[in-house]
Amino acid sequence: MLDSLITSKTRLRLLVKFFINADNHSHLRGLAEEFGESTNAIRKELNNLSEAGYLQKESEKNRISYSANTQHPLFGSLQDIIRKYIGLDRVVEEVLKRMGDVEKVVLTGDYANGMDTGTIDIGIQGKDLNEEYLDSLGNRMQEMIDRTVKFTVLNSHQTTGIILYNKAAE
After folding, report:
1. How far is Cα 112 from Cα 50, in angstroms, rounded to an integer?
2. Domains of the chain
3. pTM of the model
4. End-to-end distance of the chain based on CA atoms, in angstroms?
5. pLDDT in tens, 73-103
6. Residues 142, 81: contact at Cβ < 8 Å?
7. Which helix (H) or strand (E) holds 30?
8. Which of 12, 22, 31, 91 has the fewest CB atoms within 10 Å distance of its CB?
9. Cβ(24)–Cβ(113) under 8 Å?
10. What DSSP line would sit under 138-165, residue for residue?
11. 8-state DSSP, 24
């Protein structure tokens, strides 16, 4: 869906990298290695996104580090679009439907680090959760969003990652 609007695969990967988690930052060579692309292709897109104000640059020694510009007026909207593109909104919706008393839904793994690997790791925290539902939910989610979704039940001490849903915040 979004890949038909944004035709540059490199640009789309950069948007996922920086807007899935605003804490993600990286430099040119690291991105080239991670994406398996030339530094020239990455540099071109980083410059375009920086000039448009979506990314900010920061000098660190002899490197320039890039990160999402959280002060940009479209930051929140872009982050929502990227999360919908990945399918995180549908994952949370399906988890809340029949999992029981869900307290938190947490994105962990590669996607939390901005890597679009095709496998989404989701941690669920709560009381009296319907753990049998998780296996069938993972299969259904794969059909719905065309990505593998792995669910784990978290204890109250495991909350590292991006919080997608927090009952206490409602």
Report:
1. 22
2. 2-77 (1.10.10.10), 87-169 (3.30.460.10)
3. 0.84
4. 30
5. 999 999 999 999 999 998 999 888 888 889 9
6. no
7. helix 28-35
8. 22
9. yes
10. HHHHHHHHSSEEEEEE--TT---SEEEE
11. -
